[in-house]
Amino acid sequence: MSTTTMNATHSHDDHGPLKGWRRWLYSTNHKDIGTMYLIFALIMLFLGGASAMAIRAELMYPGLQLLDPDLYNNIVTNHALVMIFGAVMPAAAGLANWMIPLMIGAPDMALPRMNNLSFWILPAAALMLILSFVVPFFPGGGSQINTGWTLYPPLSLKVGMSMDFLIFTIHLLGVSSVLASINIIVTIFNMRAPGMTVWKMPMFVWAWLVTAFLLILIVPVLAGGVTMLLFDRHFGTSFFDAAGGGDPVLFQHLFWFFGHPEVYVLLLPSIGVLSQVIPAFSRKPLFGWNSMIGAMIFLASLGMVVWAHHQYTIGMSSAAVNYFMIGTILISIPVGLMKFNFIATMWRGSMTFETPMLFAISIVIMFVFGGLTGVMLAIVPADMQYHDSMFVVAHFHYVLLPGAVMALFAGVLYWLPKWTGNMYNEKLGKWFFWTSLIGFNGTFFVQHFLGLAGMPRRIVDYSIQFAEFNFISSISAFVYGLSHLIFLYLVITTIKGIGTTKAKPRSWEGAQGLEWEVESPAPFHTWEKAPKIDKEGHYVK
Amino acid sequence: MTSEDTSKKNKRLAFWLGLLAIMIAVLSYRFWQNLSLIVDAQS
Questions:
Q1: What is the rounded end-to-end Cα distance, in angstroms, of chain B?
Q2: SS3 label, residue A145
Q3: Is the complex ipTM higher than 0.90?
Q4: What is the tens place of the pLDDT at every residue in A382-410?
Q5: Do B32 and A254 touch (CB under 8 A)?
Q6: Which of A27, A28, A48, A502: CA 20 to 30 A from A346?
Q7: CB contact under 8 A, B14 and A111
C-alpha cells in the first residue's frame, strides 16, 4: 500500500520499509501498523459475520436445523466477542493509527515500538479466542461456552477450560487496548505540529482523545473482574460464588461498569469519522464545533455512571433504579446534540452523495431509531417487559451497526484514496451501500416486533408464531452478509488499481485537513518537517 | 525542543497513564468488595 516514494522534503538518511515479512513484524511505522489493524479487523469481521450467518441460518425456521443448542450458545458468545474486540475496536484503532499523525502534523505515533506491541498482541488474542471456541471439540476439552459475551457467574464458573482461554483472551485484549490508548493520548498531547492547538484539532482526533481516556478508565475494571473470575474458578476464592459468601451480582456490576462505556468506545471514533465526512460532502465547516466536543466529553462521562441499566431485573433499591433510569435518559441530550449538529452541517450545504456521505446520512437516521428504542429500554417498568427479548437485540444492533460499523466503512471509503492512491469504483460503493442498507434494516427491524411479541433472545428454537418474521430476518441477514463481499472486492480492486482512477492529494473537493496536503498514496514518511498552521488552523504552504 | 526531549516527555506521560490504568484495576477490586471479607466468609 505504502511505497518507498518520498515527498519533496525528505532528507538523505530517510529509508523506506523493510522487505518481505520483516516489514510487517518489525514495523514501527504508523501507516503500516494502521494497515495491519485494518486487515486484521476485516478478517475478524468475516469470522464474526460467518457466525452471524450461522445464527440466522439456525433461526430461519422454528425447530433445530443446523446447530445443537450448546454449539448455538457457543457461536452467539463468539459472534459478540469477535465483532466487538476483533472487528470494531481494531478497525477504529487502524483508522487512528493511520490518520491521527497525518491530521495533527506528527511524523509518527509517540511510542512506535509500543505501537508495534499493541498490534501484535492482537493475533495472539485472536488465536486464544478461536481456541476457546474449538477446545471443547477435543477429548478432555470440557464444555462449550454458553454464557454469552457477558460471562455471568455462576454459569461461567461451571464452564470447562474454554472459559480460561476466554479470560486470558480478555487480558491480552485489555493490555493491547490500554497500550494503544496511552500511545494515542501521548501522541495527541505531545506530538502536535506548532500552531495545532487542541481547539484546532480535527474532530476525529478529539473523538479518539476522549475514547482513549475512556478506555484507560474502563478496561482495567474488566481485567480486574475476569481475574477475580479466574481466581474463583481455580484458586479457591469466592468473589462471585454465593456458596462461599460471594455475590454473582458483583460481577454484573464490574462487567457493566466496563460494558456500558464500551458502547461509547465503539461509537465515539465513528462520531469522529462522521464529523470529517459530513462537512467534506456538504462543503461546509462542522456546525457547533465546541458543542460537539462538549457533547463527546459529556457522553463519555455520563456513560460511565449509568451501567446498571443493564441490570434492572436483579432487584436493586428503588432509589438506585431511579438514578440509573434518569441518568440513562439524560444520555439522549449529548447524542441528540451531535445529530442536530450533523443535520445543521448539511443544511444549505452544497451536498453531493458519494458513498461515504450516503452512509453518513443513513447513519444519522438509523442511529436515531436505535437511540429511541434505547430510551424505551431505559424506562424501568418497560424494560422489565423487554429485558432479554429480541427487542434488545434489535436495539443494540440499530445502535452499533450504523453507529460503529457502517461509520467505519464510511471512514475507510473516505480515506481509501489517501491510503492507496486510487479512487475506488463509486458504482461498487453504491452497490455496497444499498445492499447493506436494505439487508441491515430487513434483518433487524422485524426483530423489534419479535421481541415485543415475546420472543426471548439467545435461544436456539422458538414458538411457531414467530416463524414469518424470523424468516424475513434471516433472508435479509444473508443479503447483508453477502453485501460485504462487494466491499471486499471494492477494497482489493482499489488497492490493485483495477478499474480505478488516480487520486489527487485532496481526493474529495470539500475535504479539509492536513491529511489532504500530502500526496496520495501518503508517502511512507510524512511530516518529518512539522507543517505550519496559521491562526485559523489552516495549513500554510 | 529536541527529539530526545520529546521522547523523554512521551515516556514520562506514558508511564503515568500506565500507572493510572494499573491503579484503576486494583482500586476497582478494592472499591467493589473487600477481599478479606469474602475470604473470611468462605472459611
A1: 59
A2: coil
A3: no
A4: 999 999 999 999 999 999 999 999 999 99
A5: yes
A6: A502
A7: yes
